[in-house]
Fold this protein.
Amino acid sequence: MQRILDHLSDTPAMVATPTMDILAWNPLAAALMIDFGEIPERERNFLRLIFTDPRMRNLYPEWEDLARATTAYVRMEAANKRDDPRLTTLVGELSLRNPQFRQWWAGHHVAIKRRGSRNYNHPLVGEITLDWDTLTSNADQDQQIIIFTAAPGSASEQALRILGSRSTHAGEHAEARSR
């Protein structure tokens, strides 16, 4: 997966587990969302970040939709990971810290969504709309790559180019981590 990330220089991408632990990312993903390298590995989980990092609420205009969908997705994956201590800790932590998460998790809603479209309100480039696709590795079912793309010729594609030019310089010092 790391080689794929290394070749995706003009589109944000990250590798995550089915329970949304972020394993690796490219510089453009860090420029779009947050610099995952600044987050301790134990806390580097997309679901956790949605509920605990205020930058995520600001980045996603439809934050509640994202939070509900991600909760339902992780809930679905949790059925296969009942004995996963990291997941148990994550659910316990978020249940204590966030009443919305606690309510949505207790609702037992499940969903598997492998693609979609998401709006962003980026502090540097403004509004961006990106499509995302999730691809699972045949070699390792516990790793999936999530790729974010803009419509060709769109303002969002131009915004990604701007972020890409900024992330090239910042990325020289960043290190993508992978298992």
